[in-house]
Design brief:
Layout: E1 9-13, H1 15-24, H2 31-40, E2 45-49, H3 59-68, E3 73-77, H4 81-90, E4 94-97, H5 117-129, E5 133-138, H6 142-150, E6 155-159, H7 161-168, H8 172-191, E7 195-199, H9 207-211, E8 216-221, H10 223-232, H11 234-249
Parallel strand pairs: 1-2, 1-8, 2-3, 3-4, 4-5, 5-6, 6-7, 7-8
Helix pairs in contact: 2-3, 7-8, 10-11
This protein binds pyridoxine-5'-phosphate (PXP).
The site of pyridoxine-5'-phosphate has 19 residues, from β8 and α10.
């Protein structure tokens, strides 16, 4: 496996290939085929979220990804006993703990680490012992970052959803405020020794300022890339994101 020291990594989230497949209950489009194409297009990792209600990725998809991938799998999951068992069976490269509510359309906010500190510390300990890099998906909030550090997480993933929503709604001063918060939080997390990732809702229009944070080591991007693939194909859609990330970093 190639490692890219200093290079901003792109994790391609393939959940919504499974969403389209599940709309008809059949076997296509196949998320594993998308994952292999993403690898060939330069994805540094593949991200997949096994939700409690299995609305997109299935258990069989995770089995298959573990078998076929040559890049690391970032396994997104809620902090439940069921998911912990699945993660411990597969021991993926990384486990990203996300909040999950049945009624939400997507992962709406960051994890509440500060209030659940003890519980989460116990929850992630066996995952770390199994060799998984534990990442915590959080909002740009110093309380959450300090708590993520205290529970022993190695990585935080900053939730870029609010920043992207403000951009889409044309609320540019709120967008820029959120960006500044994320900038400050990525510096703070880096100084605590945490590796910083970011993701959620990123598009060609919003990726550049986040990719420019020198502390950010990885972006996880899914929905926009899968949507864009309808128009230009999966590999060109990924290639353009990669180009923008490299340009931002140059
Ligand atoms: N990072 C995390 C932790 C997520 O939960 C998601 C959505 O599943 C993403 C990144 C990717 O978000 P999007 O699909 O909006 O690009």
């Amino acid at each position: 496996m190639t490692t890219y020291a200093g290079r901003l990594r792109l994790g391609v989230n393939i959940d919504h290939v499974a969403t389209v497949r599940n709309a008809r209950g059949g076997a296509y489009p196949d998320p594993l085929r998308a994952a292999k194409l993403a690898e060939e297009a330069g994805a540094d990792g593949i991200t997949a979220h096994l939700r409690e209600d299995r609305r997109h990725i299935s258990d069989a998809d995770i089995d298959g990804l573990m078998e076929v991938l040559s890049v690391p799998l970032n396994f997104e999951m809620a902090a439940t006993d069921e998911m912990q068992k699945i993660a411990l069976r597969h021991k993926p490269h990384a486990v990203c703990i996300v909040p999950e509510k049945r009624e939400e359309r997507t992962t709406e906010g960051g994890l509440e680490v500060a209030r659940e500190e003890n519980k989460l510390a116990h929850f992630i300990a066996p995952l770390r012992e199994a060799g998984c890099r534990v990442s915590i998906f959080i909002a740009a909030d110093p309380r959450q970052i300090e708590a993520a550090h205290r529970i022993g997480a190695e990585v935080i993933e900053l939730h870029t959803g609010a920043y992207c929503d403000f951009h889409a709604e044309g609320k540019f001063s709120e967008r820029d405020e959120e960006l500044e918060k994320m900038r400050a939080m990525s510096i703070m997390a880096h100084e605590l020794g945490l590796e910083v990732h970011a993701g959620h809702g990123l598009t060609y229009d919003t990726v550049t300022p986040v990719a420019q944070f020198p502390e950010v080591m990885e972006l996880n991007i899914g929905h926009f890339i899968i949507g864009e693939a309808i128009f230009r194909g999966l590999q060109p859609a990924i290639g353009e994101m990669r180009r923008l990330m490299d340009e931002a970093r140059a």
